[in-house]
Amino acid sequence: MPLIDNRNRLFGLVNPIDLFVLAILVTAALVAANVLFGIFDSGDTYLVDVQFDVTALGVRGFDSGQVQVGDDVYSAVAGRLGEIVAVDAYPSQIEVLGEDGQTVVVESELATDVRMTVRGRGATDSLGYLVGGVRIQNNTRLDIMTEGLEAERAYVSSVGPAKD
């Protein structure tokens, strides 16, 4: 079998010029995708264990059994963020109008603030951490879910490499 046949096809399958044009088009598409979407990040990105605190404020009707160490935490818009390694719940602080007309801060009888320490695996780069498809930085707002809790607009209060 000759390298190029009588119809100028490489191994009788494809025209070398068509193959060259196809390679140029694929390369141009990949370059455009990288420029537009940053698909091939040239920065130093690598996977690490990440630990972050996320606090859900004003959870109504919270019961301490709803969230436990070992439960998985998910982002409502992406994937799994990690596993809960610590949970702390305390009454929400709310402002009410006092008898003297001044605003005072009291503990709520109806709402609870729930702080969870979550450990997950994600990519790190110059911007921080990307865990489960979500950028995790201080003060990031997240809609999170566990098996027993859904919280909109929870926020990240600290983030860093996981502690052993």
What does this protein look like?
This protein has two domains: 40 residues; 116 residues. It is built from one helix and eight strands, in the order αββββββββ. It has a six-stranded antiparallel barrel. Strand 5 and strand 6 form a beta hairpin.
Brief sketch in words of this structure:
The chain is mainly beta. Helices cover 13% and strands 51% of the residues. The protein has two domains: 40 residues; 116 residues.
Main-sheet strand order equals: 1-4-3-2-7-8
The Cα radius of gyration reads: 26 Å
Distance between the termini: 63 Å
Our count of helices gives: 1
Helix and strand arrangement:
Elements: H1 16-37, E1 46-60, E2 72-75, E3 80-97, E4 103-125, E5 128-131, E6 134-136, E7 141-145, E8 150-161
Antiparallel strand pairs: 1-4, 1-8, 2-3, 2-7, 3-4, 4-5, 5-6, 7-8
Top keywords for this entry?
164 residues, 8 strands, 13% helix, 51% strand
